[in-house]
Amino acid sequence: xxxxxxxxxxxxxxxxxxxxxxxxxxxxxxxxxxxxxxxxxxxxxxxxxxxxxxxxxxxxxxxxxxxxxxxxxxxxxxxxxxxxxxxxxxxxxxxxxxxxxxxxxxxxxxxxxxxxxxxxxxxxxxxxxxxxxxxxxxxxxxxxxxxxxxxxxxxxxxxxxxxxxxxxxxxxxxxxxxxxxxxxxxxxxxxxxxxxxxxxxxxxxxxxxxxxxxxxxxxxxxxxxxxxxxxxxxxxxxxxxxxxxxxxxxxxxxxxxxxxxxxxxxxxxxxxxxxxxxxxxxxxxxxxxxxxxxxxxxxxxxxxxxxxxxxxxxxxxxxxxxxxxxxxxxxxxxxxxxxxxxxxxxxxxxxxxxxxxxxxxxxxxxxxxxxxxxxxxxxxxxx
Length: 383
Ligand code: FES
Ligand SMILES: [Fe+2]
What we know:
The chain is an alpha+beta fold. Helix content is 29%, strand content 30%.
């Protein structure tokens, strides 16, 4: 689904107005958050349970399991999960645990497979999760094979993403969960991008980490040598869709178009940068032209640990040397900006959390997306 040019033009207009006036979208007031929200282990366990285990997560990109009979196995919040596309093209999610005695039936990673043979005693499952054979089955004794398929998790594919809830038996309505954000995600056309590479990065704790994905206030300082070269610092358009958010940052070319009539702006999408922030942990960032970065932050076993999966995508398969070089440059820039700048800062912040320097953090009126995020975390934790 292509976004009508008029909508992109409206965003560019809003960005230019802020640029000229040196303003940004703002929250109504500043917002204080007790530092224990970042550090308290009991609160952490409760929030991870309520939010990451009970709500739908955008767990896998459709293009990670592009072909029939393909899979993506991964660990999420300590739970091994396998997401498959079956022979009919339908996505499923299962706990990656054999129904005999619990061994993972497949190593983490992705690939093509018609079936998964458990490495312990060779029970075999198909991509629909059915138990299709048991080694030495005649000797095993009577069992009801039909009830011994892989434990299925609620799963639905929408907008180029496979949405999964980690709690078996729980149901969710993806249209309810996304509301008008579904349209926003559809405009990204994620199912038709090319997956260039994926990597996993160890990061600081969930909220320290995630805060950095929700504002451009730090771009000109922390990222002066990377994304800050392209982005106007401290300028953001902020729109919310239930718990989800769309952030629009301004590119440096706002300086040029601010002096020109609108008819001479060219393609308005070249002057802004869209971030779609899917609650609670997925950021989809069209950073530079034909490149896209999807970041998924998964809470680790303690409040100080996360794993981030970065997926680097291109609009088309890079073919010429120049296209390949541009893709690799983009990939390296995202790695440097996130690992060496954001997370390096996050690890340092983490050391100060228990120092009593701050009892609460204050989010500025110019940090509305952080305010919204933490408000939503509190809302779901209280459910
Ligand atoms: S644990 Fe999988 S076959 Fe025994
Ligand atoms: Fe950053």
